Amino acid sequence: MAPLQRQRPKLDWERRLRYFYYRFVRLHSSPDYLARGLAIGVFAGFLPFFGLQVVLSVAIASLLRGHRVVAAAATWISNPLTYIPLYSLAFRLGCWVLGRETIVFNTDIIYNSGAVLALGKEFAITLLTGCVLMGVSFSVLSYFAALYLLKRSRRRGALRRHSVSGDKWDSWKKK
C-alpha cells in the first residue's frame, strides 16, 4: 500500500497575492525600512544583469539600509515570464530617450562582425538606459505604495488591538 501523500491545494492568483501581501505587512520592521528594501529590489529587478540582480539588490540594500530579504525577493519582478515584455519596453524607452531609431536586425548586420560589435554597444547602452529609467520610476512608485500600505495596515491593526467595545468604552470615556 502506497503511503498517503498530502496534496498541496491549488491557489488562485488572488489568494497568492493576498498571502504575500500579508506576509509582507506582518514583517516586524519599520515601514520605511521595508519599503526601502522593496524599492531597491524592484530597481535591481529591472536591471538586465541576469544572475546578479539578487546580489546587487542585497548590496545596495546594505548600503542604503533597506531590508535585504525583501530586496532580494523583489528582484523577481523580472523573471523568465516577464523578461521579453519588460526588456522590449525598456529598449524602446531607451531608444526614445536617446533619440535613436529602433534597431532592425537583418542578415547584413549578422554577417558583419564590426557591425555586430557596434550594434552590441549601442544595444547595450540603449537597453541599460531604458532599464535604469524604468527601474527608478517603478522603485519610487513601489516605495510610496509600500509605505502607504504598511502604515495603513499597522494603523488598522493598532486600532483593532486597542479598541474596546460596549460599556467599557463608554465608562472610560466618561471619567
Short note summarizing the structure:
With 175 residues, the chain is mostly helical. The chain has helices spanning 13-25, 31-46, 53-64, 68-74, 83-98, 107-111, 113-162, 167-174.
Characteristics of this structure?
8 helices, 175 residues, mainly alpha
pLDDT averaged residue by residue:
79
Shape designation:
elongated
| Measured distance between first and last alpha carbons | 70 Å
Strand content: under 5%
Low-confidence stretches: none
Order of helices and strands: HHHHHHHH
Q: Which oligomeric form is depicted? A: single chain
Question: What Rg, in angstroms, do the CA atoms define?
Answer: 23 Å
Q: What's the β-strand tally?
A: 0
Question: In which range does the helix fraction lie?
Answer: over 70%
Largest sheet properties: none
Per DSSP, the total helix count is 8
- The number of domains is 1
Structural class: mainly alpha
How does this structure look, described?
This protein has eight helices and no strands. It is an all-alpha fold. The chain has one domain (30-153). The model has no long low-confidence stretch (mean pLDDT 79).
